[in-house]
Write a structure and sequence with these properties.
The chain is α/β, with parallel strands linked by helices. The protein has a single domain, classed as TIM Barrel (Alpha-Beta Barrel), CATH 3.20.20. 49% of the residues lie in helices and 16% in strands. The longest helix has 17 residues. The chain is globular, with a radius of gyration of 18 Å. The chain binds pyridoxine-5'-phosphate. Pyridoxine-5'-phosphate (PXP) binds next to β8 and α12.
């Protein structure tokens, strides 16, 4: 099944028209679901291990995803090393690896050579990445990690809060991209501070673009708040995971990706 998709995806990509805002699909939660049943027993279950994140990624590409994002966490709670290698070998769009600033992850990224790396903070107790990377508070560590990855040919993005000092510091470090954290806005969506959180993001997008950075955004984006998120200025790419994977349970991953793409405009 995976083999058939590989051939037809390549053909489709050559014909597909591109939208202005790109869609990166984060498939971590496919692995979360797999691990819920098969943690530690995947080998003995053989062919029956589902869902397969690679299969999900190929279907997402077929439906118009511009890139596939995975977060290889230190505790390997969802995505496993084998997943990232299989993705690297088989997807036809871009592989974006989210990772913490640790020597173990740098070594792996240099070997794996994803197209881009997004540096994120990592807390063991969080269910998903909760806040942006504090670039200002750990500038030395972030700089040396980013430099090592850039030397190895990767595009480096920093996942940060849309705060002026974080954006300026990201610029100083010399990476080409930032991914602005949309989580606070998403959490405020039905509250009184939605407007101020949107304004914070809007200013962040403008400041980052003025600094010459490519502006991506992600976290908590869903089929409702996308209508407003997509109006942010200078957006290059959105990374969306939970809402797409959740919707795929009812409509299938291709339907879920197509619907999000159509909402991007
Ligand atoms: N971008 C980054 C850097 C993330 O860490 C995450 C969450 O893993 C996402 C985007 C996607 O967030 P969500 O799953 O809420 O769409």
């Amino acid at each position: 099944m995976v083999g058939d998709l590989l051939v037809s995806n390549e053909e489709m990509r050559n014909q597909a028209p591109r939208n202005s805002i790109l869609l990166g699909v984060n498939i971590d939660h496919a692995a979360t679901l797999r691990q819920a049943r098969y943690r530690g027993s995947a080998r003995s279950a053989g062919e029956m291990v589902e869902p397969d994140p690679l299969f999900i990624a190929l279907l997402a590409e077929r439906a118009g995803a511009d890139g596939i994002t995975v977060h290889l966490r230190e505790d390997r709670r969802h995505i496993q090393e084998r997943d990232v290698w299989r993705l690297r070998e088989s997807i036809s769009t871009r592989l974006n690896l989210e990772m913490a600033c640790t020597p173990e992850m740098v070594k792996l990224a240099v070997e794996l050579k994803p197209d881009s790396v997004c540096l994120v903070p990592e807390g063991r107790d969080e269910v998903t990445t909760e806040g942006g990377l504090d670039v200002v508070g750990q500038v030395g560590r972030v700089r040396s990690t980013a430099e090592r990855l850039m030397e190895a040919g990767m595009v480096v993005s920093l996942f940060i809060e849309p705060e002026p000092e974080q954006i300026d510091c990201a610029r100083e470090i010399g990476g080409r991209c930032v991914e602005l954290h949309t989580g606070a806005y998403a959490n405020a969506y039905y509250g009184s501070n939605r407007g101020s959180e949107f304004e914070r993001l809007r200013k962040g997008c403008e400041r980052a673009a003025l600094a010459g950075l490519v502006v991506n955004a992600g976290h908590g984006i869903n089929y409702v708040n996308i209508s407003e998120i997509r109006t942010l200025p200078n957006l290059h790419e959105l990374n969306i995971g939970h809402s797409i994977l959740s919707r795929s349970i009812t409509v299938g991953i291709e339907g879920a990706v197509r619907e999000m793409r159509s909402k991007l405009g």
